[in-house]
Design goal:
Helix 1 (about 15-25) packs parallel to helix 4 (about 85-100) and helix 1 (about 15-25) crosses helix 13 (about 380-400). The protein contains 13 helices and 16 strands. Helix 1 (about 15-25) links the parallel strand 1 (about 1-10) and strand 2 (about 30). The strands form 4 sheets. Strands 1, 2, 3, 4, 5 and 16 form a 6-stranded mixed β-sheet that branches. By secondary structure, it is an alpha/beta fold. It folds into 2 domains: about 1-145 and about 320-400, FAD/NAD(P)-binding domain, CATH 3.50.50.60; about 150-210 and about 265-315, FAD/NAD(P)-binding domain, CATH 3.50.50.60. The protein starts with a strand and ends in a 17-residue tail after the last helix.
């Protein structure tokens, strides 16, 4: 069994950005996962990123590797604000970033991860086993899909979650009900409509919140009143975009409140004209139950307090995600229980380290500790250098003395913050 210092699980924006920093620092590491796998396989062709172009770059250890740099190199149009960035361009940018800064990525899945003594042991899908002193989980939202109870018993040919798409050709000419009112639901409805499907959005909210198209060249007074930030315009967005460390210092109840009432169901500016007047939307609608009748899904819904039925060939739950580390099947039960709080979210210190020393979590799963910026690529500018510095510092300390006692069970004590 080969031993490396650090293993990164996940080869998306967060894992790749961290790997780039570790490579630049000369830290022995390996990164596991299909390069940009979720973006390439589980997002529909033609999708546009919700983030503005300037906020869609992975964080590199040196200059020259932003989305702007890539577009200039390839002769592609670029504007920091008001330019909808295509999924395909972002994926190509990510692969270019990896090729130049990350190096070898092993396209394997982790089947099992456990703590043995002062090391982590990993079993891989290609039959190999690895050991590492530290492990960073950077898996995005994989495995955290949240489906309404009413839809959970439907057969997969009739119901699915928005996390699965992917190519939408299968829906051409069909009636598709979409449960949800946020960016995912609205974006899918636009793509389905343009493909020739008949989309029907069922949302709890009384109306769609549409973001205004941002424009550059504002005067200084306008920029002071509403600064442009990674998560949008305004001082609140600026705080959440640039100070995740301060967010981490807040009381857990305050953090929870901010997460639940910030950046809720809404639609990007570039979706408005593709949805309004073209896609059927039912507001103030809740799905009560679902059944299969005559090879179609029949949803019993409550709209404005009145019962109704919605029939479709397929229903998509665009109902978001709920972080629960216990859903990662590769984690041993001891590790999953040790790193999770009561709701399954990881309890992280200021270095993104869990209660198991040497085990870190970055990306969307860290959002409840560091704020909503971690749900976006923009968060790599904070997570990657912070974790890299801590790993490098721990490595230097470990060269002077053994930092971890030998034990045969997970170590739930909190490391120093």
């Amino acid at each position: 069994m080969s031993l490396t210092d650090t293993i990164i699980i996940g080869a998306g924006p967060y894992g790749s950005s961290l790997a780039a920093h570790l490579k630049a620092a000369g830290v022995d590491h390996q990164i596991l996962g299909e390069p940009m796998g979720a973006w390439r396989n589980y997002m529909p062709p033609g999708m546009l990123l919700r983030s503005e172009a300037f906020a869609s770059s992975m964080h590199a250890p040196r200059s020259g590797f932003t989305v702007e740099d890539y577009c200039r190199l390839k002769g592609l149009p670029y504007r920091p604000l008001g330019m909808a960035l295509p999924l395909e361009t972002f994926v190509e940018y990510g692969l270019w970033f990896q090729k130049n800064l990350v190096g070898e990525i092993q396209p394997v899945d982790v089947l099992a991860l456990r703590r043995v003594g002062d090391q982590f042991q990993l079993s891989l899908s290609d039959g190999r086993s690895l050991a590492a002193r530290r492990v960073v989980i950077a898996l995005g939202l994989k495995g955290f899909a949240q489906t309404p109870t009413a839809l959970q018993e439907l057969p997969p040919q009739y119901a699915s979650h928005s996390e699965l798409y992917g190519n939408l050709e299968w829906a051409r000419g069909k009636d598709i009900a979409i449960v949800g009112g946020g960016q995912s639901a609205l974006g899918l409805s636009a793509l389905l409509n343009e493909l020739g499907a008949r989309a029907h959005v069922l949302m709890r909210e009384s109306s769609v919140v549409w973001h205004e198209r941002p424009h550059g060249g504002r005067n200084i007074l306008s920029r002071i009143k509403g600064p442009d930030a990674g998560l949008g315009r305004g001082w609140r967005s600026l705080f959440l975009s640039e100070f995740p460390g301060v967010f981490h210092m807040l009381d857990p109840r305050r953090r929870k409140l901010i997460m639940e009432h910030t950046y809720g169901a809404s639609g990007a500016w570039w979706l408005h004209d593709r949805v309004v007047g073209k896609v059927q939307i039912s507001h103030r609608t809740v799905v009560r139950s679902a059944a299969i009748e005559n090879d179609r899904v029949v949803l019993n819904v409550l709209t404005d307090g009145k019962e109704a039925r919605v029939s479709a060939d397929h229903v998509i739950a665009a109902t978001g995600f709920k972080t629960d580390m216990r859903q990662h099947a590769f984690l041993s039960k001891d590790l999953a229980d040790a790193i999770s709080n009561q709701g399954g979210m990881p309890d992280l210190n200021s270095h993104y380290e869990t209660r198991v020393r040497g085990l870190y979590v970055i990306g969307p799963a860290s959002a409840h500790s560091f704020g909503p910026v971690m749900r976006f690529v923009y968060g790599t500018k904070h997570a990657s250098p912070t974790v890299a510095r801590h790993l490098i510092g721990s490595l230097k300390a470990g060269s002077r003395q053994r930092a971890w006692p030998v034990t045969h069970a997970p170590m739930p004590e909190r490391s120093g913050e």
